[in-house]
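Figure caption, in words: inputs first, then the predicted bound structure.
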Amino acid sequence: MIEENCLALSDIHGWYGESKALHGIEINVKRGQTVALMGRNGAGKTTTLRAITRQLTRTEGSITKDGQDISAVPRHKLAYKGIGFVPEDRGTYNSLSVQENLKLLPKVGNSGMSIDELHSFFPNIQERRHAPAGTLSGGEQQMLAMARVLLAGPDLILLDEPTEGLAPVFVQKIAELLQDLKKRGLTILLVEQNMLFTRKLADHFYMIENGLVVADFPAEELSENEELISRVLGV
Ligand SMILES: Nc1ncnc2c1ncn2[C@@H]1O[C@H](COP(=O)(O)OP(=O)(O)OP(=O)(O)O)[C@@H](O)[C@H]1O
Ligand SMILES: [Mg+2]
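Bound structure (adenosine-5'-triphosphate present):
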């Protein structure tokens, strides 16, 4: 049987200490799809990515990548499973140079972009290669974070609000990059509150509220779900 789901989360429960934040999350991301995970502040979007990347005090439920159980794979080993993760705080090291940051992850696949392709996409990264990452602008840091993860050659990337706090020119750049990655067949799980941004990219939407998926629908059904989206996002 060919495994259609690249990533599958089933009945995920997650805790921070004694405090329970996820209450049975179900998400399926098919190979090659871009899936948007949406919800208000505090809904559990970041926590869902942390459950996948094993950063909670306790996580229960099944997490599979290409049908293989990855629920016990620690964060630093995810690259070897073809998973690239760009966390909220971007995961770059401020005191290391741009160039050094780009060398930290192991190269595990070839589905990602080459350094030359990334440089042509993000000329700022090339120009500032000797600068400490901490001196980059927010937009440049996001580009570095994406570049760093893509160089490892993942086939699945998890992104936590890549456009947050960025100027429109950077948001546009990230959108172009994601479109390009989609064309190359990369699978993307995108946490994003910017509906204008996800609308153009996502193939499927999951709405999350209080640590639970309350709805999911394909992009073709977006217009029928406008009311639900407004209610869940509180916009
Ligand atoms: N480190 C932590 N310790 C304890 N509770 C936490 C921690 N991080 C998040 N929470 C709680 O878990 C719940 C889900 O938070 P989470 O950060 O996943 O929300 P989110 O959907 O990513 O929101 P945002 O849009 O603000 O990023 C919230 O109630 C939050 O207060
Ligand atoms: Mg968050």
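The CA atoms of residues 36 and 107 lie 26 Å apart.
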